[in-house]
Amino acid sequence: MSNSLLAQQLIQAVEAADSPAKLLKAVQDLAAARLEEGLPTLIAALGYNNPGVAVAAVDGLIQMGDVAVQPLLDLLDGYNYSARAWAIRALAGIGHPRALDTLLEAAKNDFALSVRRAAARGLGNLRWHELPIEQVPPAQLQVLDVLRVVAQDPEWVVRYAAVVALQGLARAMTLTQPNSIAPILEQLQQVANHDGDLTVRTRARFAQQALREGEQENSEFLSVQETHRS
After folding, report:
1. What is the pLDDT of residue 223?
2. C-beta separation of 35 from 6 below 8 A
3. Which residues of the chain have pLDDT under 70?
4. How far, CA to CA in Å, does 207 sit from each of 136, 214, 219?
5. CA 165 to chain centre
6. 26, 58, 28: which is closest to 43 by C-alpha?
7. Nearest Cα to Cα of residue 11 among 32, 26, 28
8. Where are the alpha helices (DSSP H) in 95-155?
């Protein structure tokens, strides 16, 4: 059976499903096939108001990787915030920087906390090596500026996501501009001292500790390298 014929059959199964169980099975089968022809149907499934189906579709989109990025951006739902949140979650899981502008805008300005949360997490999960090297430092600083704003979001779950993203951004910046993570550590310190939610403060302290331990490990590694050279 050709891929096109298989995709047509799997898409028809999704469209013909007449129960939640059948719909879930059909979406899971379509996601598992990883066929480009199925991308619009998987993206449409994000708006079916069925969390199980949405999770299956998101998992499938993430597994398909970069090929799913542009369709997700093109078909991003501007009206159904739940579908938009799932789509942003998929983009965040893929991590391609082609979604950077969308993630920045969503993290900072979307009215739905689920969208802001997913976008914030995505900003800490970008694959920076996919960008031309000269574009990386300014883009990372742009992400840092937005995460500073998101770290003051009214919703604690969004602020928590911002802290996780700040830690991910700092880890990435240690590879691209290692002398530039001080502002991230300062932001985490501010959150650890002043955030109104204990969970967020605790997560910020954890991020600080992990980053400092990482810095120490890098320093020790460089010291060992220098010793071997001499």
Report:
1. 43
2. yes
3. 1, 215-230
4. 22, 10, 18
5. 9
6. 58
7. 26
8. 100-109, 113-123, 136-150
Q: Residue 220 has what pLDDT?
A: 42
* Dist CA 57 CA 59 (whole Å): 5
pTM exceeds 0.85, yes or no = yes
At 215 the pLDDT is: 64
Instruction: Tell me if 91 sits within 8 A of 61, measured CB to CB.
Output: no
Q: What is the DSSP letter of 46?
A: T
**What gap in Å lies between CA 23 and CA 17, rounded to an integer?**
5
> Is there a common fold for 1-94 and 95-230?
no
In terms of residues, how long is the chain? 230
Query: Which fold, 95-230?
Result: 1.25.40
Q: At a CB cut-off of 8 Å and minimum separation 6, what does 91 contact? A: 69, 72, 73, 99, 102, 103, 122
Ranges of each domain in the chain: 1-94, 95-230
Instruction: Determine whether domain 1-94 maps to CATH 1.20.1250.
Output: no
